[in-house]
Amino acid sequence: MGQAAKVLQLFKTLHRTRQRVFKNDTRALEARIKINEEFKSNKSETSPKKIEELIKIGSDVEWLLRTSVIQGIHTDHNTLKLVPRKELLIENVPYCDAPTQKQ
């Protein structure tokens, strides 16, 4: 896959992730502007090494948004209601101080 295709795919993926992560949050959905500004500011980059570095940064940001961000909704003066996405919920494995060896 060429670099231009990778950049376009990353651009689309970041916007899809932004829409999924910040669903129903109009203020946070304005991250669209920041994504567009960052891509526009690096539009004239020609160095393949620098482009790969920027792609890596963008991919890391997308992964971080997808795996680490949950929404919080103010329900009261000092209360937040957390709204985790389904893909963030994982099976809770109990912690054990003294693990036993499998036989």
From TrEMBL:
Entry function: Assembly factor required for Rieske Fe-S protein UQCRFS1 incorporation into the cytochrome b-c1 (CIII) complex. Functions as a chaperone, binding to this subunit within the mitochondrial matrix and stabilizing it prior to its translocation and insertion into the late CIII dimeric intermediate within the mitochondrial inner membrane.
GO BP term, example: mitochondrial respiratory chain complex III assembly
GO molecular function: protein folding chaperone
Localization per record: Mitochondrion matrix
Matching CDD domains: Complex1_LYR_LYRM7
Organism the protein comes from: Neomonachus schauinslandi
Stated family: Belongs to the complex I LYR family.
Entries under Pfam families matching the protein: Complex1_LYR
Entry protein name: Complex III assembly factor LYRM7
Matches recorded under InterPro entries: Complex1_LYR_dom, Complex1_LYR_LYRM7, MZM1/LYRM7
GO CC aspect terms: mitochondrial matrix
Subunit structure: Interacts with UQCRFS1.
UniProt keywords, alphabetically: Chaperone, Mitochondrion
Domain Complex 1 LYR protein: 6-59
